[in-house]
Specification:
Elements lengths: L7 H19 L20 H12 L8 H6 L4 H14 L2 H11 L19 H6 L14 H15 L8
Helix pairs in contact: 4-7
Length: 165
């Protein structure tokens, strides 16, 4: 069992792996009697240890999205750090006002003139900022991905792409 999962069940697995590795290194590994199975001696990790392991593996804590999505989209530590910043920016009054004005806050919105998602990205802006990794158009991508692409667009151009403010 590897130390890859950091959910609560995974945290116990990490603790158990670390414990068995240190016991093996010290030569203190006990062998169960024939026909019996040794119960795993899982040592739960403290909150500080879980935080440290999460930061070591992903670069951020708490995780802005699920580990499943991190794996599904193969997100880097830098992308996860940007996602934390994107979430913060998306929660500002200005970003909320833009979402409401552009799409009524609907992340699945499609405009007849070729704009998609909560921030009404055109395909060119969406793709040039890396959105194609998450969906062909913004409305097909998860909300967190739209917030991330909004953040990248904002970093490059400020609020100017959104006339609806």
């Amino acid at each position: 069992m590897g130390a890859t999962a950091l959910c609560f069940t995974g945290a116990v697995a990490v603790g158990a792996t670390a414990l068995s590795e240190s016991a093996s290194a010290a030569g203190n590994e006990s062998t169960p009697a024939a026909g019996s199975q040794a119960a795993p001696s899982a040592v739960p990790l403290t909150a500080a240890q879980i935080r440290a392991e999460t930061i070591k593996k992903y670069g951020v804590h708490p995780l802005p999205i699920s580990e499943r999505n991190i794996a599904k989209y193969n997100l880097s530590k830098k992308t996860l750090r940007d996602l934390v910043k994107a979430r913060k920016l998306a929660s500002t009054t200005k970003a909320k006002r833009i979402r409401k004005c552009e799409s009524g806050g609907n992340y699945k919105s499609i405009d007849s003139s070729g704009y998609y998602g909560a921030y009404q990205f055109d395909r060119g802006t969406w793709l040039s900022n890396g959105g194609g990794k998450y969906g062909r158009t913004a409305n097909k991508a998860p909300a967190w991905a739209q917030d991330l692409i909004m953040y990248k667009t904002y970093k490059a151009r400020g609020w100017s792409p959104w006339t609806c403010q």
